[in-house]
């Protein structure tokens, strides 16, 4: 089953011989990541309006297995440098994710916002956490993905490109990670 | 690894692919992107465990480069470390034509296509070894019958910034361990895995990557930076250590270093000179990066108490005086990120360059108007202090943006000079005199 999956993924993503459009090539990605920039899949990030330099770095790291997550390592392994650029540029033009309809828990929202200020997330990610260049947009990212990613940065199981997040996360507790993710996912 | 997460995951993916695949056949005729079915939610994917031998969670105070940034200042808020593009520039896209060297000098591309090319080391048989920081590789630029070829010598390493060569053996410094490959130039096509010689090192990411070199005393020198922008560090940080080439007999020889990423021994006095990067966020113009000289074992170079030899740190300097510490022999510009440095001993360049320190300045990020992003020449006075600092290789800075960033310099046997550029993943070669055909060296 797994082999079939991989073969099909390559047939779709890695083949440019058949002159498929970028929309066709990226469709399997968006099946999980969300067609309109907003992911409905557990633990899978929304990609909408993500900055191209950041996405390019992540796709490169997946291809080189510097960031380890097997499905993504498989999906990217046959992509050329130009493919990586093409996908990153396309992702950047998709609409940004929206906050969920319901408001967050007021106490947690307040704690999360205070943590963002205290740990200077805005220094690199911008005041509205929209990110810039190689620093990702995190505002309204999925809560579960945010929590998982922050925890992985904290225990250094996800190596950042330049490792700054491991240091930022060192003093932040698991409870605080939960509040941060709750707030960042819902901020308006 | 992580197979336990893959069962539900691959089922989900295969479902999505099958849907999309079937649709894409029809999409050849239709311009509409295929409407993929809403996939069911998979089981939560656990984080992938780190590859063996990589850093664990740091236990020291946070090392964020942003600690110390003034709050509520728009100009300061614009500044953050600059990440290079992950993909090395194609040889024809390198900024070589925009680079400037003094009259009589020439610059050419020596080798390209090495993502994040950082520190350089030269083998006895002419192989150039290239470390990296943001990828997992050490490269070898092999010179064979006038043709150069880039090989990946080792991969799967963790921040292998440092490389040094001695008597047939290549030494590699990762974030928290030093290893070696013996008879490396005889095994370039099928090199053995590096064997660890020293790993009693902290695992902090901030200033954890290492430059290494082997001294005239036949010992390997390896630093440990401060684990953050400006921190009161413990005894395992902010130091320079030397050890025998098998990792034994390690001793700390200097303290009060913030982060040195380049050093070399003066050709005549044999004293060790090193660059050191000054702290961020104190101001646009101070402190400057330092050129330091070790005259005896046990000196303290000031960090984090005294900066650039004459400023007590606003936070940690209370009750301290700069007279307690060894002052730098020269200042190398505010936030300029002075990294690799080597003394020039070759015969190709004019006599004025003999025994001058050639210093690669990676270039500032913590400054509104960027400084550095060049290679400079530090000439010394008779007493070993710095007499002058002159530009040598410039042109990497365009409209306050980098189009390349020099990391290390390396003198070749013929007296030409190599310069690495981690922004473009390339190594350039600077020669003096009539340009020779590329490929000869």
Structure commentary:
The complex is a heterodimer of chains A (188) and B (441). By secondary structure, chain A is mostly helical. Chain A is 56% helix and 0% strand. The longest helix of chain A is centred in the middle third of the chain and has 13 residues, at 81-93. The model of chain A has no long low-confidence stretch (mean pLDDT 90). Chain B has helices at 6-27, 74-77, and strands at 105-111, 117-122, 128-132, 138-144, 147-154, 162-166, 169-173, 178-181, 195-198, 213-214, 220-224, 239-243, 251-255, 263-265, 272-276, 288-294, 299-300, 306-307, 311-312, 330-334, 338-343, 357-361, 374-380, 386-393, 397-398, 401-402, 406-411, 417-421, 426-432. In chain B, the strands form eight sheets. Chain B has a five-stranded mixed β-sheet with strand order 10-11-12-13-17, with no helix packed on it. Chain B has a four-stranded antiparallel β-sheet with strand order 1-29-28-27, with no helix packed on it. In chain B, 49% of the residues are buried. The interface between A and B is large, with 62 and 68 residues.
What's the helix and strand layout?
The complex is a heterodimer of chains A (188) and B (441).
Chain A: H1 2-13, H2 22-33, H3 52-63, H4 70-76, H5 81-93, H6 106-118, H7 121-125, H8 143-154, H9 164-169, H10 174-186
Helix pairs in contact in A: 3-4, 3-5, 6-10, 8-10
Chain B: H1 6-27, H2 74-77, E1 105-111, E2 117-122, E3 128-132, E4 138-144, E5 147-154, E6 162-166, E7 169-173, E8 178-181, E9 195-198, E10 213-214, E11 220-224, E12 239-243, E13 251-255, E14 263-265, E15 272-276, E16 288-294, E17 299-300, E18 306-307, E19 311-312, E20 330-334, E21 338-343, E22 357-361, E23 374-380, E24 386-393, E25 397-398, E26 401-402, E27 406-411, E28 417-421, E29 426-432
Parallel strand pairs in B: 13-17
Antiparallel strand pairs in B: 1-29, 2-3, 3-4, 4-5, 6-7, 7-8, 8-9, 10-11, 11-12, 12-13, 14-15, 15-16, 16-20, 18-19, 21-22, 22-23, 23-24, 25-26, 27-28, 28-29
């Amino acid at each position: 089953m797994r082999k079939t999956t991989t073969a099909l993924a390559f047939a779709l993503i890695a083949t440019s011989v058949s002159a498929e459009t970028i929309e066709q090539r990226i469709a399997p990605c968006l099946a999980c990541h969300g067609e309109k920039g907003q992911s409905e899949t557990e633990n899978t990030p929304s990609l909408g309006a993500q900055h191209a330099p950041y996405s390019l770095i992540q796709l490169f790291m997946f291809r080189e297995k510097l960031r380890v997550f097997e499905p993504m390592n498989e999906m990217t392994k046959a992509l050329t440098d130009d493919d990586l650029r093409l996908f990153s540029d396309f992702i950047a033009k998709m609409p940004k994710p929206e906050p969920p309809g319901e408001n967050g828990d007021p106490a947690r929202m307040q704690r999360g916002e205070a943590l963002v200020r205290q740990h200077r997330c805005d220094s690199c990610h911008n005041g509205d956490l929209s990110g810039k260049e190689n620093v990702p947009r995190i505002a309204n990212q999925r809560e579960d993905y945010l929590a998982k990613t922050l925890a992985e940065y904290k225990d250094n199981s996800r190596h950042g490109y330049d490792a700054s997040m491991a240091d930022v996360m060192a003093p932040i507790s698991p409870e605080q990670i939960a509040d941060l993710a709750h707030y960042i996912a819902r901020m308006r | 690894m992580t197979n336990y997460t893959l069962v539900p995951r691959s089922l989900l993916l295969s479902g999505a692919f099958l849907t999309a695949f079937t649709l894409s056949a029809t999409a050849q005729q239709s311009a509409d992107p295929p409407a993929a079915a809403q996939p069911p939610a998979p089981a939560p994917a656990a984080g992938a465990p780190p590859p063996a031998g990589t850093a664990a969670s740091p236990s020291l105070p946070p090392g964020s480069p942003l600690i110390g940034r003034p709050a509520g200042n728009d100009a300061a808020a614009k500044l953050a470390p600059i990440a290079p593009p992950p993909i090395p520039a194609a040889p024809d896209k390198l900024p070589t034509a925009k680079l400037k060297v003094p009259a009589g000098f020439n610059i050419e591309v020596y080798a390209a296509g090495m993502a994040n090319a950082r520190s350089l080391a030269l083998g006895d048989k002419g192989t150039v070894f290239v470390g990296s920081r943001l990828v997992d590789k050490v490269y070898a630029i092999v010179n064979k019958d006038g043709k150069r070829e880039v090989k990946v010598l080792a991969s799967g390493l963790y921040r292998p910034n440092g490389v040094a060569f001695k008597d047939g053996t290549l030494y590699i410094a990762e974030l928290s361990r030093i290893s070696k490959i013996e008879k490396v130039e005889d095994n370039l096509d099928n090199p053995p895995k590096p064997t660890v010689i020293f790993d009693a090192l902290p695992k902090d990411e901030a200033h954890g990557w290492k430059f290494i070199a082997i001294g005239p005393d036949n010992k390997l020198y390896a630093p440990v930076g401060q684990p953050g922008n400006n921190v009161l560090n413990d005894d395992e940080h902010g130091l320079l250590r030397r050890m025998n080439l098998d990792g034994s007999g390690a001793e700390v020889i200097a303290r009060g270093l913030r982060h040195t990423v380049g050093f070399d021994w003066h050709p005549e006095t044999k004293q060790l000179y090193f660059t050191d990067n000054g702290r961020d966020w104190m101001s646009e113009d101070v402190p400057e990066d330092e050129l330091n000289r070790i005259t005896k074992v046990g000196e303290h170079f000031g960090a984090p108490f005294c900066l650039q030899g004459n400023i007590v740190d606003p936070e940690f300097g209370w009750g301290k005086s700069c007279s307690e510490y060894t002052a730098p022999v020269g200042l190398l510009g505010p936030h300029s990120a002075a990294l690799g440095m080597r003394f020039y001993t070759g015969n190709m360049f004019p006599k004025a360059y003999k025994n001058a320190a050639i210093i690669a300045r990676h270039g500032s990020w913590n400054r509104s108007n960027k400084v550095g992003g060049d290679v400079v020449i530090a000439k010394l006075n008779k007493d070993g202090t710095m007499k002058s600092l002159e530009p040598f290789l410039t042109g990497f800075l365009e409209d306050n943006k980098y189009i390349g960033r020099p990391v290390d310099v390396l003198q070749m046997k013929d007296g030409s000079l190599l310069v690495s550029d981690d922004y473009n993943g390339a190594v350039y070669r600077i020669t003096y005199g009539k340009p020779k055909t590329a490929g000869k060296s």
